[in-house]
Known about the structure:
Layout: E1 2-6, H1 17-26, E2 31-34, H2 42-50, E3 55-59, H3 74-80, E4 86-95, H4 103-120, E5 124-129, H5 132-145, E6 150-152, H6 159-166, E7 171-174, H7 184-191, E8 198-200, H8 222-233, H9 237-251
Parallel strand pairs: 1-2, 2-3, 3-4, 4-5, 5-6, 6-7, 7-8
Helix pairs in contact: 3-4, 5-6, 8-9
Amino acid sequence: MFDTHVNLHGDVFAEDLDEVLARARAAGVSRFLAICDRLDNFEAVHAIATANDDIWCSVGVHPHHSKDFPDLTVDQLVEATSRSGVVAIGETGLDFHYGYSAEDAQIASLRKHIEAARQSGLPLILHTREADELMGDILEEEYAVSPFVPLLHCYTGGARLAQRALALGAFVSVSGILSFKSASEVRDVIADVPMDRLILETDCPYLAPMPMRGRRNEPAYLQYVAEALAKLKGLKVDAVKSITEDNARRLFARVDA
């Protein structure tokens, strides 16, 4: 399995990261994508990737933090992609639920990330919450200028945005939310996403899947995400693991370069 979204830097895993990774590898996770949420965390994220042969990383600024990096440039993002192990741009996006950053700051940051994805040729990891219509509009507008490859990460949005993004060649990643009893609407949306566009993630340390809900999430729990997707799609778990790993390696092609 390929855990395509792990947040390994910072205090949550500071004391036992090696043990966490060992448990994940024993559970069948063979590849990890460590996510950059702030530009000033990039060095820490990249260090984790370079220290492990089975970990790669992204570079980007989460929409929550876009207010903290008003002077972010496309060149900064593209330059970081020249580093070994960097295989994606983001995560970026729009999150109007919490309002940690003003909407205009989030939009400006998103557009810079889109241009960096174009210039680097790397996939764009997108976080969207309560901004489906605007996200869809921006993606279609920017894609018409010049193509790029979007990834709707930890997708909990509506069917309309999912289908608009799929029409642009997007991939969709599912997390432990898919296993939550309350997530019937998410399951309905994912049921209509083709298997060749789906990938798995834990988004650890957040969103531990059933039956681990309430605990600190970790990559070893990706097995339960695979099981939830297999149940939804009526497939065997091993088939889901194989298909989603192939999809992730196709999306993050630099992993095998």
